[in-house]
Known about the structure:
The chain is α/β, with parallel strands linked by helices and 270 residues long. The chain has helices at residues 31-40, 56-64, 78-89, 102-110, 135-146, 170-181, 193-203, 217-226, 241-246, 258-269; strands spanning 12-15, 22-23, 26-27, 44-49, 75-77, 95-99, 114-115, 124-127, 150-153, 159-162, 165-168, 186-187, 210-214, 231-234, 253-255. The protein has a six-stranded parallel beta sheet with strand order 5-4-1-13-14-15, sandwiched between helices.
Amino acid sequence: MAHSANLSEVRAVLLDMDGVVYIGDQPLPGVQQLLDYLESTGRDWLFVTNNSSRTPAQFVEKIARMEIRADEPHILSSALATASWLAAQYPDGARAFMIGQDGLRWALEREGITLVEEAQTADVIVCGIDFGVRYERLADATLAVRAGARFVGTNSDTSFPSERGQIPGAGALLALLEAASGVKPTVIGKPNAGMFEQAMRKLGTTAAATLMVGDRYETDIAGAVELGMPTAAVLTGITPEHEFRAAAAPPDLILPGLPELLDAFRQADS
Length: 270
Ligand SMILES: [Mg+2]
């Protein structure tokens, strides 16, 4: 039961990154033009990505190479969302064994979480994407979870789009650890409400006035629909058009990409 989104009432826009803003190192068309239009009409925006590999500074640098201007406060990654969630869960501090990259390490350290290399001494095992993951680290994490450490994942995306096609994502590493330990992780990133709620808190907007733009139904669209946010799906990433259309709660808009979203905003505002 799609209510068609009234874009003229949208006050802020959340944009997924992989498959919406870029694929690998290739920028997708229309990003900066859309951001310029949103700003010129008094709307705020935020990049909201399940990719935990980069720090906000590294994201800014990556998109700057694509001539997209954004500063660090305009980026919310699953690493940042997971770290603030953990800080709230463990107000007296926690010891964490991490599988992940710079983005997750930076976020956990910023929240005052102690990173340990001896997995058996950790309160919590935190797993995000790690493109250099080694078997031994997966074994250490498995043994710690089996021994009772809390098991937390940044995001459940089993794959993400690269120039080569869909390659394993953090969800594939979580699936491996779950299979080996018999324990299901607590996952923070989209489609879980926590990530969208952190984004709207940052922007100071309500669900009804915040448009979510994404390329993957199960994460970007399903989670946002659940919270009552208007949604726009773009066809530049993972989910094909027929799957968006067939969904029980389809997105309000299904568009080829961001240039068409800009057109839709212009039309709604005119
Ligand atoms: Mg995506």
